[in-house]
Amino acid sequence: MDALLAIGTRKGLFLARSSGNGPYKMDPVHFANVAVHAVTIDTRTERPRVIAAIEWGHFGPSVLWSDDLGATWQEAERPPVAFPEQTGTTLEKVWQLQPSPTEPGVVWAGAEPAALFRSEDGGQSFRLMEGLWDHPTRPQWVPGGGGMCLHTVIPHATDPARIGVAVSTAGFFRSEDGGGTWEPANRGIKVPFNPEGSQYPDFGQCVHKVANHPARPERLFLQHHWGVYRSDDFGTNWTSIGDNLPSDFGFPIVINHDKPDTAFVFPLHGDMDRSPVGHRYQVFRTDDAGDTWRALAQGLPDEPVYSSILRDAMTASAAGLFFGTRDGEVYGSADEGESWDLIARHLPDVFTTRAAVL
């Protein structure tokens, strides 16, 4: 098996390759000293396309793509992700890039300020989805600690008309008509700081990440600021599944590539510490859709650690399970987290990881 691991950091994009299940070898840095907030590896065509959302400093954000695994990069002549002039809004960054599983050429982009964009040419140009931008609840959305960002895009695996997004801190929203109209879908997600009697609002939840599996697209797993949840009806209802975790606070949540009941989280101390629970790197896995969880740490450091992990810094695919830390270490597992290997260290702050079999 040949695999590609993409690591977006505060100071560049790193591409690591594995041949024949061997160790990962890192290419020289791409976009040195440039923040890479999102990356995806689009394997829907014969030649995989790597798409990266970068921040050129005072030149602003952009999206570039490579059809030769990073040997060369292309950038559109005009900003590929941009707000129409009539919105009076300027793009701050692209937080998410997500190819559609059902529509060839379609790539979704989640942005800050919170907005959804659609590309129909493989990520070369995008248009704003105005239905979400003009949603009647938007004036009441409040930025989270990371800003007013749309950080998660969940296209339905079989029905292109259905799509979900997560906005910090507005909650999870769902469309049944391809992004034309939207409704909040947060029933059952608790907001503990609200007064009693209003702790289950229609929107306003601090959703950190959402994931689903193509084999069971109606089932969603969600990491909230105050809990871990599962939905079996694409967000109509949510059930808490975090009671057996040492902490239900964290940022990423991912699903095993071929087991829709197997999900992974990375619990953190929920106070302002926000370091790993017990000050040890531990990934927790459920194999029964959240009924039980088990800590996995073999091969991870034994000494105390205080570095955190961001919402897109963990990923799962047929290539394996990976996570990157804020102090620039990247770990990988080929056996569903049972054991871990150090892939890289001394990198800049890791924002995102993505992996694919080539």
UniProtKB/TrEMBL annotation:
Keywords: Hydrolase. InterPro entries: WD40/YVTN_repeat-like_dom_sf, Xyloglucanase_GH74. The keyword Hydrolase applies. GO terms for molecular function: hydrolase activity. One of its GO terms (biological process) is xyloglucan metabolic process. It comes from the Bacteria. This is Glycosyl hydrolase.
